[in-house]
Write a structure and sequence with these properties.
By secondary structure, this protein is an alpha/beta fold. Helices cover about 40% and strands about 15% of the residues. The chain is built from six helices and seven strands. Helix 3 runs parallel beside helix 5. The protein is elongated and about 80 Å long.
């Protein structure tokens, strides 16, 4: 009787060990598979200001691409911004036409000079398609002290700019005491890829033919 009880206990213990081994094996397989997935699929945005999210507007612009776009990430090794890293990986995963290329200024010290005369900070970007490009200066305080990060807006605007053959033309009337456009408004116009020009009826007797809109900022 005692032998039978020992045998039953042994069988029960062996069964428990077998189940444990199977469960551990399944967990190992799950971890291996999860590790092979792109980071853009494994990182979720739980921030209140949606720092890591891609909006529907970006998806429309990116999904419509039929030209190759290079996003040059100018950053020293080990200085990569985690928010920007996640954001760029999402762009690359959305379209085969987008390629993110790191350019370490220690290795390529003159690379950025062909695109801008500004002082180039780590994590600045250059978006390029063909012979058109736009430089995006990195501002480390844009989301450190504020509640929003508009890196997505700048990148999507730059992509739309470099692939567009024609941009909206806005002429701003001057010569009658009009007020200067606020800088924030100018920045927004640039982000919307609206090209602005000034003109005066004192020098011209008609509205320019390519004008899509006339602004009188009183």
């Amino acid at each position: 009787m005692k032998r039978q009880e020992n045998r039953i206990a042994f069988q029960g213990g062996a069964y428990s060990l077998a189940i444990t081994a199977v469960v551990l094996a399944i967990l190992v397989v799950i971890n291996v598979l999860a590790g092979s997935l792109p980071s853009s699929l494994m990182k979720y945005d739980i921030s209140s200001s949606k720092l890591y999210s891609i909006t529907s507007n970006t998806k429309v612009v990116v999904n419509a691409l039929d030209q190759d776009v290079n996003i040059y990430w100018i950053v020293q090794s080990g200085k990569e911004d985690s928010v920007l890293d996640n954001l760029l990986s999402k762009y690359a995963s959305l379209s085969d036409h987008i390629q993110v290329i790191k350019k370490n200024p220690d290795v390529y010290p003159t690379f950025a000079k062909q695109y801008t005369d500004e002082t180039v900070q780590n994590n600045s970007l250059v978006v390029e398609c063909g012979d058109k490009n736009r430089f995006i200066s990195y501002d480390p305080y844009s989301y450190t002290y504020n509640t929003s990060f508009d890196g997505e807006g700048a990148i999507t605007s730059a992509i739309d700019y470099v692939v567009s053959d024609e941009l909206p033309q806005m002429y701003v009337l001057e010569g009658h005491g009009e007020t200067e456009l606020p800088e924030t408004f100018k920045d927004q116009l640039e982000k919307e890829n609206v090209e602005t020009h000034s003109f005066s009826l004192l020098n011209e007797d008609q509205i320019p033919e390519d004008a899509d809109v006339i602004m009188i900022y009183g």
